[in-house]
Amino acid sequence: MEFARFELDGLLEVRPRKIGDERGYFSEIFRVDEFAKHAPAVEFVQDNQSLSRGVGTIRGIHFQSPPAAQGKLVRCLAGRLFDVAVDLRRDSPTYAKWASVELSPEENKQLWIPAGFGHAFCTLEPNSIISYRVTGYYSPENDKGLAWDDPDVGIEWPQVADPSTLSLKDRKQPSLARLPGYF
Asked: Which CATH architecture describes the domain 2-178?
Protein backbone atom coordinates (compact mmCIF):
# COMPACT_ATOMS: atom_id res chain seq x y z
CA MET A 1 0.00 0.00 0.00
CA GLU A 2 1.37 3.41 -0.97
CA PHE A 3 0.33 6.83 0.34
CA ALA A 4 0.71 10.18 -1.44
CA ARG A 5 0.07 13.54 0.20
CA PHE A 6 -1.61 16.50 -1.44
CA GLU A 7 -0.84 20.19 -0.93
CA LEU A 8 -3.94 20.27 1.30
CA ASP A 9 -2.73 19.09 4.72
CA GLY A 10 -4.26 15.80 5.82
CA LEU A 11 -5.60 14.77 2.41
CA LEU A 12 -4.12 11.46 1.20
CA GLU A 13 -4.25 9.40 -1.94
CA VAL A 14 -4.13 5.73 -0.95
CA ARG A 15 -2.89 3.24 -3.53
CA PRO A 16 -3.56 -0.38 -2.55
CA ARG A 17 -1.38 -2.89 -4.37
CA LYS A 18 -3.02 -5.22 -6.89
CA ILE A 19 -1.67 -8.72 -7.49
CA GLY A 20 -3.07 -10.03 -10.74
CA ASP A 21 -2.93 -12.87 -13.19
CA GLU A 22 -5.12 -14.22 -16.00
CA ARG A 23 -7.90 -15.01 -13.50
CA GLY A 24 -8.19 -11.47 -12.16
CA TYR A 25 -6.58 -9.81 -9.14
CA PHE A 26 -6.34 -9.65 -5.37
CA SER A 27 -6.00 -6.36 -3.49
CA GLU A 28 -5.69 -5.59 0.19
CA ILE A 29 -7.94 -2.52 0.31
CA PHE A 30 -7.40 -1.46 3.91
CA ARG A 31 -4.95 -2.19 6.74
CA VAL A 32 -5.36 -0.29 9.97
CA ASP A 33 -1.65 -0.58 10.84
CA GLU A 34 -0.53 0.96 7.53
CA PHE A 35 -3.27 3.59 7.48
CA ALA A 36 -2.47 4.67 11.06
CA LYS A 37 1.10 5.54 10.03
CA HIS A 38 -0.29 8.28 7.78
CA ALA A 39 -3.60 9.18 9.47
CA PRO A 40 -3.26 8.39 13.18
CA ALA A 41 -6.18 8.15 15.60
CA VAL A 42 -8.73 7.32 12.89
CA GLU A 43 -11.49 4.87 13.72
CA PHE A 44 -14.09 3.93 11.12
CA VAL A 45 -17.67 3.32 12.28
CA GLN A 46 -19.84 3.13 9.17
CA ASP A 47 -19.60 2.11 5.49
CA ASN A 48 -21.80 3.81 2.86
CA GLN A 49 -22.28 3.21 -0.84
CA SER A 50 -24.11 5.10 -3.58
CA LEU A 51 -24.89 4.55 -7.26
CA SER A 52 -25.13 7.35 -9.81
CA ARG A 53 -26.66 6.14 -13.07
CA GLY A 54 -25.81 8.92 -15.52
CA VAL A 55 -22.58 10.45 -16.77
CA GLY A 56 -22.06 13.96 -15.39
CA THR A 57 -23.97 13.42 -12.16
CA ILE A 58 -22.76 15.88 -9.52
CA ARG A 59 -23.06 15.12 -5.81
CA GLY A 60 -21.85 17.52 -3.15
CA ILE A 61 -20.10 19.48 -1.78
CA HIS A 62 -21.05 17.69 1.48
CA PHE A 63 -19.71 17.51 5.03
CA GLN A 64 -20.93 17.03 8.57
CA SER A 65 -20.38 19.78 11.12
CA PRO A 66 -19.08 19.20 14.65
CA PRO A 67 -19.78 17.44 16.90
CA ALA A 68 -20.60 14.87 14.18
CA ALA A 69 -17.79 15.74 11.75
CA GLN A 70 -16.62 12.82 9.62
CA GLY A 71 -13.46 11.75 7.89
CA LYS A 72 -14.07 9.68 4.74
CA LEU A 73 -12.05 7.05 2.95
CA VAL A 74 -13.55 7.04 -0.55
CA ARG A 75 -13.17 4.58 -3.41
CA CYS A 76 -14.91 3.79 -6.69
CA LEU A 77 -16.32 0.29 -7.07
CA ALA A 78 -17.73 0.67 -10.61
CA GLY A 79 -17.52 3.31 -13.32
CA ARG A 80 -15.23 6.31 -12.92
CA LEU A 81 -15.36 9.45 -10.77
CA PHE A 82 -13.84 12.91 -10.60
CA ASP A 83 -13.55 13.12 -6.81
CA VAL A 84 -13.03 16.45 -5.01
CA ALA A 85 -12.11 17.59 -1.49
CA VAL A 86 -12.33 21.23 -0.34
CA ASP A 87 -10.50 22.49 2.76
CA LEU A 88 -13.08 24.19 5.03
CA ARG A 89 -10.79 24.66 8.04
CA ARG A 90 -10.70 28.45 8.55
CA ASP A 91 -7.25 28.43 10.21
CA SER A 92 -5.68 26.26 7.52
CA PRO A 93 -3.19 27.79 5.07
CA THR A 94 -5.10 25.93 2.33
CA TYR A 95 -8.57 27.15 3.39
CA ALA A 96 -10.99 27.20 0.42
CA LYS A 97 -8.51 25.31 -1.78
CA TRP A 98 -9.53 22.10 -3.49
CA ALA A 99 -7.86 18.97 -4.78
CA SER A 100 -9.17 16.24 -7.05
CA VAL A 101 -8.33 12.71 -8.07
CA GLU A 102 -9.88 10.39 -10.60
CA LEU A 103 -11.11 7.18 -9.01
CA SER A 104 -11.93 3.92 -10.79
CA PRO A 105 -11.79 0.20 -9.99
CA GLU A 106 -8.98 -0.23 -12.51
CA GLU A 107 -6.78 2.41 -10.88
CA ASN A 108 -7.74 1.06 -7.42
CA LYS A 109 -6.92 4.40 -5.73
CA GLN A 110 -8.71 5.74 -2.67
CA LEU A 111 -8.95 9.24 -1.25
CA TRP A 112 -8.69 9.95 2.49
CA ILE A 113 -10.64 13.12 3.31
CA PRO A 114 -10.24 14.19 6.96
CA ALA A 115 -12.92 15.96 8.99
CA GLY A 116 -12.93 19.64 8.11
CA PHE A 117 -13.11 19.05 4.36
CA GLY A 118 -16.09 19.12 2.03
CA HIS A 119 -16.48 16.26 -0.44
CA ALA A 120 -18.03 16.10 -3.90
CA PHE A 121 -17.80 14.09 -7.09
CA CYS A 122 -18.88 13.98 -10.71
CA THR A 123 -19.44 10.71 -12.54
CA LEU A 124 -17.37 10.19 -15.67
CA GLU A 125 -19.02 6.90 -16.66
CA PRO A 126 -22.55 5.54 -16.29
CA ASN A 127 -23.50 3.39 -13.31
CA SER A 128 -20.69 4.65 -11.10
CA ILE A 129 -20.63 3.30 -7.56
CA ILE A 130 -18.77 5.05 -4.75
CA SER A 131 -17.99 3.58 -1.34
CA TYR A 132 -17.37 5.71 1.75
CA ARG A 133 -15.82 4.39 4.96
CA VAL A 134 -16.51 7.11 7.56
CA THR A 135 -15.33 8.01 11.05
CA GLY A 136 -18.67 9.27 12.36
CA TYR A 137 -22.27 8.17 12.13
CA TYR A 138 -24.61 10.04 9.81
CA SER A 139 -26.30 12.90 11.63
CA PRO A 140 -29.15 14.66 9.76
CA GLU A 141 -28.88 17.79 11.92
CA ASN A 142 -25.15 18.09 11.13
CA ASP A 143 -25.51 17.35 7.40
CA LYS A 144 -24.14 20.48 5.68
CA GLY A 145 -22.93 21.58 2.30
CA LEU A 146 -21.33 24.20 0.11
CA ALA A 147 -22.39 25.39 -3.36
CA TRP A 148 -20.80 23.07 -5.92
CA ASP A 149 -19.94 25.97 -8.26
CA ASP A 150 -18.79 28.59 -5.76
CA PRO A 151 -16.40 30.94 -7.64
CA ASP A 152 -14.41 31.56 -4.43
CA VAL A 153 -13.47 27.88 -4.47
CA GLY A 154 -13.23 27.60 -8.26
CA ILE A 155 -13.39 23.85 -8.80
CA GLU A 156 -12.53 23.01 -12.40
CA TRP A 157 -15.25 20.45 -13.05
CA PRO A 158 -15.00 18.11 -16.05
CA GLN A 159 -16.93 19.15 -19.16
CA VAL A 160 -19.50 16.40 -18.59
CA ALA A 161 -20.58 17.91 -15.22
CA ASP A 162 -24.34 18.42 -15.51
CA PRO A 163 -25.92 20.88 -13.04
CA SER A 164 -29.38 19.50 -13.85
CA THR A 165 -28.40 16.33 -11.93
CA LEU A 166 -27.97 18.19 -8.62
CA SER A 167 -30.35 17.21 -5.84
CA LEU A 168 -32.74 19.88 -4.56
CA LYS A 169 -30.59 20.07 -1.41
CA ASP A 170 -27.41 20.64 -3.42
CA ARG A 171 -29.05 23.38 -5.52
CA LYS A 172 -29.64 25.39 -2.32
CA GLN A 173 -26.24 25.08 -0.64
CA PRO A 174 -24.65 28.34 0.55
CA SER A 175 -21.60 30.03 -0.91
CA LEU A 176 -18.33 29.95 0.98
CA ALA A 177 -18.85 33.60 1.98
CA ARG A 178 -22.16 32.65 3.66
CA LEU A 179 -20.93 29.40 5.21
CA PRO A 180 -20.51 29.56 9.01
CA GLY A 181 -17.05 28.72 10.36
CA TYR A 182 -17.72 25.12 11.34
CA PHE A 183 -14.06 24.12 11.44
From this structure: Sandwich (2.60)
Give Cβ neighbours of residue 71 (< 8 Å, ≥ 6 apart).
39, 42, 112, 113, 114, 115, 134, 135, 136
139 φ/ψ angles, rounded to the nearest 5 degrees: -130, 105
What is the reported pTM? Answer: 0.95
Domain locations in the chain? Answer: 2-178
Q: Known catalytic residues?
A: 62, 132
The pLDDT confidence band at residue 130, using thresholds 50, 70 and 90, is very high
Question: Bridge partners of 62?
Answer: 119, 145
Judge whether 161 and 56 are in contact, CB under 8 Å: yes
